[in-house]
Design goal:
Distance between the termini of chain B: 39 Å
Order of helices and strands of chain B: EEEEEEEEEEE
Largest interface: A-B, 22 and 25 residues
Oligomer: heterodimer
Largest sheet of chain B: 7 strands, mixed
Shape of chain A: globular
Distance between the termini of chain A: 36 Å
Number of strands of chain B: 11
Radius of gyration of chain A: 13 Å
Shape of chain B: globular
Structural class of chain A: mainly beta
């Protein structure tokens, strides 16, 4: 089974900060990775698919990169609506989510 | 606009079968990936499995043997059955559809339904 490890588990940041979340796969998943944002009591929302493709309607401050085993989600300038939990998902073999990164206000 | 809605019992007894249905509007289930995902209270997301438009399935190996996902094209819905449930199966269960047919990157989600396993 492919394991997905996100870091950090918690991230404290301020409005306007540039933040990066990393997701590492236990084996190569090529570019079959998605990123989601989830707020309390709500379903996750797709942000990025196929590692770097921005989902329609998602602000351009979100970007994704990587291939193989290491991937990053970057938010270029944090906005109030961005404080949430973020998950990566691999879908190269079956599918697995990372454990999540909670983005908190500093 | 594609919309998904989960339905089913909110309480299931241990050792019994959990059954949920996802009703789909705004699009046919004859294309794309149709998934079930769950989230135990206060924890992360776990992918359960999917049924693809062709009727093929893929399930989380950790649940294999207990899970079945099937589609009802006449009613445009798909279903989850999870057998021999325990308290560890207590979670919010989501149904979700891929944004396109290239892979199960999940662009459309239901609101989720809480299923509690308890006697």
């Amino acid at each position: 089974d492919i394991q997905m490890t996100q870091s950090p588990s918690t991230l404290s940041a301020s409005l306007g900060d540039r933040v990066t979340i990393t997701c590492r796969a236990s084996q190569s998943i090529s570019g079959w990775l998605a990123w989601y944002q989830q707020k309390p009591g709500k379903a996750p929302k797709l942000l990025i698919y196929q590692a770097s493709s921005l989902e329609s309607g998602v602000p351009s401050r979100f970007s994704g990169s990587g291939s193989g085993t290491e991937f990053t989600l970057t938010i270029s300038s944090l906005q109030p609506d961005d404080f949430a939990t973020y998950y990566c998902q691999q879908y190269n073999s079956y599918s697995t989510f990372g454990q999540g990164t909670k983005l908190e206000i500093k | 606009q594609v919309q998904l809605q989960e339905s089913g019992p909110g309480l299931v007894k241990p050792s019994e079968t959990l059954s949920l249905t996802c009703s789909v509007s705004g699009g046919s289930i004859n294309s794309n990936y149709w998934n079930w995902i769950r989230q135990p209270p206060g924890k992360g997301l776990e992918w359960i499995g999917y049924i693809y438009a062709t009727g093929s399935n893929n399930y989380n190996p950790s649940l294999k043997g207990r899970v079945t996902i099937s589609a009802d094209t006449s009613n445009n819905q798909f279903s989850l059955k999870l057998t021999s449930v325990t308290a560890a199966d207590t979670a919010v269960y989501y149904c979700a559809r891929s944004r396109d047919s290239r892979g199960p990157h999940l662009g459309y989600w239901g609101q989720g339904t809480l299923v509690t396993v308890s006697s």
